[in-house]
Amino acid sequence: MTINEIQDELIEDFAFYQDWMEKYEYIIQLGKEVPLIDEAYKTDQYIIKGCQSKVWLYPELHDGKIIFTADSDAIITKGLVSLMVKVLSGHTPEEIAKADLYFIDQIGLKDHLSPTRANGLLSMVKQMKLYALALQAKG
Amino acid sequence: MKTFDIQKIRADFPILKREVNNKPLVYLDNGATTQKPKAVIDAIVDYYTAMNSNVHRGVHYLSQISTDAFEVARRKVQGFINAEHEHEVIVTKGTTESINIVASCYGRAFIGEGDEIIISAMEHHSNIVPWQMLCDEKGCKLRVIPMNDAGELDIEAYKALFSERTKLVSFTYVSNALGTINPVREMIAIAHEHQVPVLIDGAQAVQHIAVDVQELDVDFFVFSGHKMYGPTGVGILYGKESLLNAMPPYQGGGDMIKEVTFEKTTYNELPFKFEAGTPNIEAGICLTAAIDYIEEIGLDAIKAYEDELLAYATDELAKVEGVRFIGTASHKSSVISFIVDGIHPYDIGVILDKLGIAVRTGHHCAQPVMDRFGIPGTVRASLAMYNTTEDIDNLVQGLKRAVQMLK
What we know:
heterodimer; A: mainly alpha; Sufe protein. Chain: A; two-stranded antiparallel sheet; 12% strand; B: alpha/beta; Aspartate Aminotransferase, domain 2; 2 domains; four-stranded antiparallel β-sheet; Fe-S_metab-assoc_dom (chain A); Cysteine desulfuration protein SufE (chain A); pyridoxal phosphate (chain B); Cysteine desulfurase (chain B)
C-alpha cells in the first residue's frame, strides 16, 4: 500500500469512532501493536526530543525501504508514534521525505501538531523525515 | 476569622463558568497560574480605557495618573509584605527576573572565585540556573541542601553546608513540585548567624500564606503577580535597602538614570535604579486590585479553607488504587503531586484534559526533584481559594477513569 492508501484507511478507521474516549482507546491499542525497537537502541542517540514522555525511534534500511521500530514510556505517546510508524514504515526514503501527512488533521489530531505540544508528534514527524533525508543521501 | 463564602468567590472568577471539551472546567493548575477575579479583569480594562500613558515621564495629565496608580501599587505591595520602605519594592517581569537580578547584581558585586552559594534540592529551575550561570562566570560553587523521602529539607545538613566562603542562601518558601512549606524563619536565622544574606522564592507562598518580610528578617523576597490572582508579566523583588543600594544596576536604559552624558552616567535612586525601560504598566497597576481582592477575603481565611481542601483531596486520592504521593511533608500547602503505579503522568494528563480537568504533568521545572525520587514526573493538582470539594471529586472520578483506560 502507498503512504496515501494507508492514510486513507486510518481516516476511515477513525471515522468509525465518534467519541474521544473510543479514539484514545484505539490509539492506546495501536501503541500495543508498535514494532518494538531493539533494547540495544533505546539510547539517547535514538530519543526524540520535545516530548514530555520518552520516545525512541530507530530507522533501518532494508532493500531500499526504511523500516522503523519505536517505543515510548507513555502509552498514548506510544500510540501516536505507532500511527506514524504504520504510515511511514516500509517506504522508500524519497516517499517518506515528500509525504504529505494529511491524515493527522483528518483524524482530529491536529491539535497535537502544534510545536509547543508536549507529546512531540511534530518532533516525531520531523525526525522521521530527517532520517529519510539522511538515508536518501546515503543510498 | 472572616466567613468564607465559596459560592460568592467562585462567582467572582468569570472563567470558572466556561466549559472545556464540553465539560465544566475543573481548574487545578493554580501552581502554574491562578485565574483572575473580575475586579482584576475590570482594572485592566479600566487602565486602557481611561489611563493608558507612560509612567515617570510626562507632565501631562494621563502620565501623572498612571504614574500615581503605579506608585499606589508599589505601596500596596509594600503593605502586603510589610516592607519597611516602598523603595525596597522593585517591580520586575516576574519571579524569574527577580532572581536573575539578584544573581547578576549581587553576584557581580559580592561573589567571586571559590565562593559558595547554598540552594536546596527542591528548587524550581529558575532558582538553580541563574546561580549556575553565575558560577560558570565567576568560578563559584553551588552547595545543595538535601531532602528526605517526605520532601523535607535536612536542616542539620543545611547547617553543615556553611563555610567561610558562603556568600548567599537562596531557597523556596513553598515547593512548587511537592507542596512542602519550608521552615523559613529558622533557616533565615541560621544563615544570619553566619552573616549570610538569604533570598526566599515566594512564588508559591504569597497567595496562600501571609508574609511579613521584616518579621522574617529576609534579605531578598521574590514573587509573581500571575500566581496570586493578578496579571501576568509582573513580579516583585523585595530587597533590604542597604543591600539594594550596595548592588550595581541590572540593565541600563531609561528611568534608571539621573543624568547621562557620553562621559558618565549617574544612576537613579531606589527603586528606579533597577527598573530600566518602560515597565509592564498595566500589570503593575493591576496588582493593586489583586492584593485588594486577597486582603478582602483574608489570607488567614484562605489558608484555613485551602488546608481543609488539601486534607480532603489527599484522603480521597489515597483511595484510588496505585496512587503514590510525591511530597508528604508534615507542613504542606495546596499542592498534591502523585504518580499512579505503572502509568506515565503524561497519559493521565491527556485523559483528564479530555474530561475538562486541568492539572499539570511532568517535572514541573524541577527536574532534580524528580531525579531525587527516581520518577519521570508527577501529576500535580494545585489548589486555589476558588476550588471546591466537587472539583476534587471530579478529579478523583476522572483519575479512576484514566487508570481504567490506561492500565
